[in-house]
Design goal:
about 15% helix; about 170 residues; seven-stranded mixed sheet; single chain; 2 helices; alpha+beta
Length: about 170
């Protein structure tokens, strides 16, 4: 996994949405039409949705009101800025800029808030996701994150402290 970061003081939104796609950002508790797969969201998380022809074709989330702890990593990670997660675009809407529009809209929404940085975890082998985040101005700041496999933890006696990410360099 790679930790991607964006220094929000210099953030410029990317106009990537196709003309037939509408992007909206709202609190999760106020969101209307989202699939059940999004139940990991907290009520105060932000959600960006992409809609075309009255159907949701993509979404992404941002945790903004509390540090995000990612527990399935070998070394626990704590993100103290905004943390973007759960980016998904329906197959028929991919390669049209929808993912970049979602990430850009969420990043723009948190840029005016109290956060100096926004973060995301992206699988190194997921070239499509990496391109989306890079298009919006995110950069890989740590490519050494390892996730657990089948719930396995490090061998007994190995102690790994939490790694905290707070501010990205501009």
């Amino acid at each position: 996994m790679c930790v991607y970061a964006n220094a929000l003081g210099a953030f410029e939104p990317v106009d990537a949405a196709p003309e037939d796609v509408r992007i909206a950002v709202e609190r999760f508790e106020d969101a209307r039409a989202l699939p059940e797969a999004t139940t990991d969201a907290e009520p105060t998380d932000l959600v960006a949705t992409a809609s075309a022809d009255d159907a949701v074709v993509g979404w992404a989330f941002a945790r903004v009101d509390s540090p995000m702890r990612v527990g399935e990593c070998v070394r626990p990670l704590v993100f103290e800025g905004a943390y973007l997660w759960g980016l998904f675009v329906e197959s028929g809407a991919r390669d049209r800029g929808v993912g970049a529009a979602l990430v850009s809209a969420l990043t723009d929404a948190v840029a005016g808030d109290r956060y100096g940085s926004a973060f995301a975890l992206v699988e190194r082998s997921n070239a499509r996701s990496r391109r989306v985040f890079e298009r919006v101005g995110y950069r890989c700041v740590d490519g050494t994150v390892r996730v657990t496999v089948g719930g396995r933890r490090p061998p007994t006696g190995v102690v790994l402290g939490a790694r905290t990410y707070a501010d990205a360099e501009q």
